[in-house]
Design goal:
Strand order of the largest sheet: 5-6-4-1-7-8
Helix content: 25-40%
CATH class of the largest domain: Alpha Beta
Number of strands: 17
Length: about 400
């Protein structure tokens, strides 16, 4: 993609410089301990690189939604030891992100040292992107680096306001994310296949409307597919289905046809009368779905179709599962398709980019995540990017 943002490659001598590094440390906690270190691991390369070049690395992050108040259980204090353990070097902590506590802690920081400042959302000015708050943050740094793509869809003081006040750069994780997304939809190698699943069409209307103009093939799976099937006249029984969105589904199909994008819907269905592990189930044709049953996955014919589309593609964008993958045996289609995409990626035939909460869980469940070209942990920011929306935290880095 044409790179319109500066990266760490554009930074020269930074020894002794105060680098304000925005990271995502909004990690799951239990009894004061971090239970999943994925987000910390993602930002370690940037911290190590800056620290190794002698910069004073000052970490800015939010935690939870304290709404401008000091909420004790949303303090970042317990996160500092977890960062230090993974970084294998001390990480100091200051109990505020502006004011004397921050100023004094930064003054005590040696070259190459790392300091974590307290939750930016303890201040109302953070989420309001208040210029005065942003300038107080900026006063503590010489350089700003954003490595928190997952917060880039928010125009907050520490993600957007500060980037206007200091020389701004993308960290290595932000850079990798933007390059991966650019290769998937910015300037992709065609044909491009999108796999979009999940429960509801209503949560992904913008996404689908944007994708039909960008991709060559669009596989729709999960509960969303039921709404499209019903719009085409299929009786989906007791399946999860947004019948009131039939017109929206038809509009998306019409737009896809006009854009020469092939929409791929299920050819068959795996149905059951109850949603539980090991429930009695059978694969049926679309015109034979029992009135008292629900679709929980797609069958062998649909799986073969999806696999053939993956084989035809050079680029894959994946968001959402094809069935109720959390419960066996309704994970078969998601697992089969994910593993096939992983195989093609390993073989050098496919650039595969995936993201969104359920997506990461589904690919991990299939044992396929590690073989995808890029798996985003960003959630909302990843979805907004797929929807074609401008991300304020990314826009602020351009220049």
């Amino acid at each position: 993609m044409p790179q319109s943002f500066k990266t760490l490659d554009d930074l020269s001598d930074i020894t002794g410089k105060r680098v304000l590094l925005r990271v995502d440390l909004n990690v799951p906690m239990d009894s004061g301990r971090v239970t999943d270190t994925t987000r910390i691991e993602r930002v370690l390369p940037t911290i190590r690189e800056l620290s190794g070049k002698g910069a004073k690395v000052i970490l800015l992050a939010h935690f939870g939604r304290p709404k401008g108040e000091r909420v004790a259980e949303m303090s970042l204090a317990p996160v500092a030891p977890a960062v230090a353990e993974l970084l294998e070097k001390p990480v100091a902590f200051a109990d505020d992100c502006i004011g004397p506590a921050a100023v004094n802690a930064i003054a005590a920081l040696p070259d190459g040292g790392v300091l974590l400042l307290e939750n930016t959302r303890y201040h109302k000015g953070e989420e309001k992107n208040d210029p005065e708050f942003a300038s107080q943050l900026a006063a503590n740094g010489d350089i700003y680096v954003n490595d928190a793509f997952s917060a880039a869809h928010r125009a907050h003081g520490s993600t957007e306001g500060i980037a206007r006040l200091l020389p701004a750069y993308a960290g290595r994780t932000m850079q990798a994310e933007l390059e991966a997304l650019g290769s998937a939809l910015g300037e992709p190698v065609r044909p491009v296949l999108a796999v979009v699943g999940g429960a509801k069409v209503s949560s992904k209307i913008d996404l689908l409307e944007n994708l039909v103009s960008k991709v060559d093939m669009l596989v729709i799976g999960g509960g969303m597919a039921n709404t499209f099937l019903a719009a085409n006249g299929t009786d989906v029984g007791k399946s999860l289905c947004e019948h009131d969105l039939a017109d929206t589904a038809r509009k998306i199909m019409t737009a896809a046809e006009a854009a020469n994008c092939e929409i791929v819907l299920p050819d068959d269905a795996v149905v059951a009368r109850e949603f539980k592990a090991g429930a009695d189930n059978k694969t049926v044709a679309l015109d034979a779905i029992p009135a008292d049953a629900m679709i929980l996955d797609v069958g062998a014919a649909s799986i073969n179709t999806v696999i053939s589309k993956i084989d035809a593609a050079k680029t894959l964008v994946w968001n959402g599962p094809l069935g109720a993958f959390e419960i066996a045996p309704f994970d078969k289609a998601t697992v089969a398709a994910a593993q096939h995409a992983a195989d093609n990626t390993r073989a050098g035939k496919l650039n595969s980019v995936a993201g969104g909460g359920d997506t990461v869980a589904a690919l991990n469940h299939a044992g396929a995540a590690a073989s995808f070209s890029y798996v985003s942990t960003a959630g909302g920011a990843f979805l907004e990017w797929l929807e074609g929306k401008e991300l304020p935290g990314v826009k602020a880095l351009e220049g």
